[in-house]
Structure formats: structure tokens, C-alpha cells
Amino acid sequence: MAMLIVAGLCLLFLAWLIGKPYFIEWQRRRLYNRPFPQAWLEILRRRVPYYRLLPTDLQAQLRGHMQVFIAEKTFVGCADLHITDDMRVTIAAQACLLLLNRKTDYYPKLERILVYPGAFRVKKQEVDEAGVLSEYLDDLSGESWGDGQVVLSWEDAIDDARFFGDGRNVVIHEFAHQLDQEKGAATGAPILARAEHYQPWSEALGAEYAHLRQQADDELDTLFDYYGAESPAEFFAVITEVFFEQPQEMAAMHPELYRQLQSFYRVDPFGWR
């Protein structure tokens, strides 16, 4: 009898494992297709003017993705911040821009978005050329962690949404890191559609990354923030910000880099303005 019970439990567990992906997909389709709340739409139009620039089909995609994203991710207020729909909608709209026109698993490693009222302070370590380790405090507007969390400053999130076009957006930056981290540590090479795409990706981004590092060393004017010269992972996040915020400038000044991001994200923001 005990053996039959164990066998039955094993069969139920196996059925759950097999059926879980189908249930998740069914649940996501249900969330994606349900009517978008009018209150959320008002927040979206007020907080994220970029939304009005999107073609109508991409607006519909964005609304659907946002409903899945908000249902699956937990928003946590930090430093006594109370989470509101205003925050959820504004952050989700910017995060889901990176999911348009692509098969997505909705940032599968991400579980929580920690939101601070403004810039937050973190302890960092640095090793100098002599090998001496030092610690210091740094004020940040966002971080993407590999343990299922993104940390954001609400003040910066709403400012970046409002002033779209300056090439800087903390939500887009941190969620580009999340895409990069889907395969493990962030390296500047997210999961591409085909294996043969990695070589041209590496060649284009590698050359541009080296060029930005040289520009940063020489303190020359550049379309990309010098922060992108810190590492290939930061370079990918920085150029993603510019791709969505300043597509005309990027396409003109860095055409091959623009083509690589256009192929990866499967959208062309050039025509949205």
C-alpha cells in the first residue's frame, strides 16, 4: 500500500512538472489579453509620454506585457516608501519596452523590484593599482542583482520617463542588465536568437566598446555615457538606453551598432518620433 501511495505521489509530481510550463503560458495569455485598467492607462499616458510615440500595435503589446509583468513581479518599497499603482505602471512600462516583438519569458530570474524614494547608498569595494583594497559609499539610482532583484530610485524612474530623449534611462539600463543576466553573469552578450549572431555581435560591440574606452581616456565628446566604458556589461546597458532614447543619433553615428541592437530587440525606434 505504501508503495502505491509513493508511486502515486511521484506520478502527480511528474504531471505537475510537465504541466507547469503550459499552466504558466495559459496564465500569461489570460493576463495579457484581459482589458487594460483605465486607471493604469491614465497613469501610462501621464507618466510615460514615450508611449504615445509607439505605433498602435506596439502600444497594445506593451499594455499586455505590462499586465503580465505587474502580476508576476513583486514591488517592495524601501526607506518607508509605499508602493502604488503609479509606481508599478511607470516602471513596468519602461521595463517592458525591451520585450516588444520578441518571444519573452518576462525576465525569468527576476522576482522583486526594490524601490527607494530617491538615490540609495551602497557600500562598494575597489582595488587600486598597488593592490590595496578600499571601501567607499556610493549613491546610485539603480542596480541589477543576479539574485532575482532590481533596485531603483523612484525619483530617477519618473524623471527618466518624463524627459525621454536625453539618452539616459535607469529602468531601461537595469533591465538590459537583466536580459544580459538570463544566461548567468552579465557579460554584454545576452541570449541571441541564433548561434551565428554572436560573432558579428562580438565584433561590432567589441570595437565600439574599445573606442568608447579610448574616448573616455582622452575625455572626448561621445554619444555614449563614459560609464559604458566600465565593462562590456555596462556598455550593453548604456547603448540600450541610447538605442531607445536617441535612435536617430545612434543610427547616424554608429550604424552597425544600431543594426545589431535593432536585430536583437526586433524594433526600430528610429521611426517612432
Automatic annotation (TrEMBL):
GO terms for molecular function: aminopeptidase activity; metallopeptidase activity. It comes from the Bacteria. Pfam families: Peptidase_M90. GO terms for cellular component: cytosol. Transmembrane segments: none annotated. This is Protein MtfA. It comes from Paucimonas lemoignei.
